[in-house]
Write a structure and sequence with these properties.
The protein is built from nine helices and no strands. With about 230 residues, it is mainly α. The chain has a single domain, classed as MetI-like (MetI-like fold), CATH 1.10.3720. The protein starts with a helix and ends with a helix.
Length: about 230
Amino acid sequence: MQAMGAWFLNIWEQFDFNIIQGDRYKMLLDGLGTNATITVCAALLGLLLGAVVALMRLSNLRALRGMATVYVTVVRGTPVVVQLMIVWFVVLVNTPVTKTFAAIIAFALNSAAYVGEIIRGGILSIDKGQTEAGRSLGLSAGATMLLIVIPQALKNSLPALLNEFIALWKETSVVGFIGLMDLTKAGDYIKSRTFSAFFPLLTVAAIYLLVVMALTRVFGLVERRLRQSDNR
């Protein structure tokens, strides 16, 4: 018991030295806020762009299908960290935008490629009778797609979209490559100050894990509610 007590005391002392002293935990909280802001904004923008990409992929115009196919292929075939650096150091290098804004744009463009494929699959899963029913009611092809098909496609695709949100949250850990003080960068900065890698990096990993577990729990409840509403 005494040995275990000494071990816990040593753990607490190391935690206090690495995280508490110097208010270093505030850096982690600020970094967490940066990651959360980028994730939420990029997810919303990526959802809108993804819907456009999905419609382009399903278009009768070969040019639109080709452009969307090339876009999806390039984005899905290159690392997100490279895309992030291209957006900041090449595309937006001479603009007055902030690094946070650049990160949001980069991750939104990346997410849109995946979201587009998810929504496209959801649209293809909708029975053609739904479209025929909309047209029989006097709706145009665009209105039928917007008011009838896409809402059902989004509902069918919700589990995959929620998983994409979780993946996007974890991918934002690379924003430090353009100099943003995010959660990962904060942990690395603390490591450089305390010369101890264990607690700073373990704390960062634990925060990412806790957020993912919380999101998984919330998304699970949402999916359960949707299944219950479908069974009524």
